[in-house]
Design brief:
The protein is of the alpha+beta class. Helix content is 34%, strand content 29%. The longest helix has 19 residues.
Length: 254
């Protein structure tokens, strides 16, 4: 495992410990609303602080882009930036739905190099390094091999108006759809072959960074819904195995 991934794993596990420490006491948490259906808790903030402090023990000059802390430029000559979502799936967490994760992506300049997604409830650890493949608990993972949408399961993180309108062709072709509440885990599940695809709209870099690299390293394809490569900037993304990619884009573009 790459040294940076080792640090990211240590940071993710520290954040996960904080998340689990409070998971039976969510009614007592201080909660703030950032937008419709978008919440932050003191646990989110404490978990992000734990990640940042852990990373800075080893890489004090690296920068951060975090959901709670915003952008904090570093002094590293290679412009290493840690892109952090300390608790992806906060709404699930607040309702004691056991589906949420810590997401950490590491970018050199504008290229994603390393990824960790940690599910503390299931103790599942997804990791990737560019060119080294993707792993789940140190076991190599690959995207699914399904080649027809009729047998596919696609995860969604899109507004209801899009799912009911532009997503209608999915229904006509018998595609099973899932809304899990965690884009990071959705992408990790695509990488592991549990989902065949993912369609997300209105997402941020910290929602996507780690999952994007996992899918790439597991052999999947990603783009914006119109086929563009600027999905990280736009926050609109489609991720599938190679066999379903074109059909999935056609469904979304109808």
């Amino acid at each position: 495992m790459h040294p940076i991934v080792n640090v990211a794993v240590r940071a993710a596990r520290r954040a996960g410990d904080i998340i689990l420490r409070y998971h039976n006491r969510v009614a007592d948490l201080e909660v703030s609303r950032k937008g419709r259906g978008d919440f932050a808790t003191e646990v989110d903030r404490a978990a992000e602080r734990a990640i940042v402090s852990t990373v800075r023990e080893f890489y004090p000059d690296h920068g951060f882009l975090g959901e709670e802390g915003g952008a904090r430029p570093g002094k590293d000559k290679d412009e290493m930036t840690w892109i952090v979502d300390p608790l992806d799936g906060t709404a699930n967490y607040l309702r004691e739905i056991p589906h949420y994760a810590v997401s950490i992506g590491v970018r050199r300049n504008r290229r994603l190099e390393h990824a960790v997604i940690y599910d503390p409830r299931r103790n599942e650890l997804f990791t990737a390094t560019r060119g080294w493949g993707a792993q789940l608990d140190s076991r190599r993972i690959r995207v699914s091999r399904h080649d027809t949408l009729a047998e596919a399961v696609v995860a969604l993180s899109v507004p209801q108006r899009l799912d009911g309108g532009a997503g209608a062709p999915f229904s006509r072709r018998g595609v099973i759809r899932r809304r899990t509440g965690s884009a990071a885990l959705d992408l990790a599940y695509v990488a592991a072959g549990r989902f065949d695809g993912f369609w997300g709209v209105g997402l941020n870099a910290w929602d996507l960074a780690a999952g994007v690299l996992l899918v790439r390293e597991a052999g999947g394809l990603l783009s914006a819904p119109d086929g563009g490569e600027d999905f990280m900037e736009r926050g609109e993304i489609v991720a599938t195995n190679r066999r379903l990619f074109r059909d999935t884009l056609r469904c979304i573009q109808v």
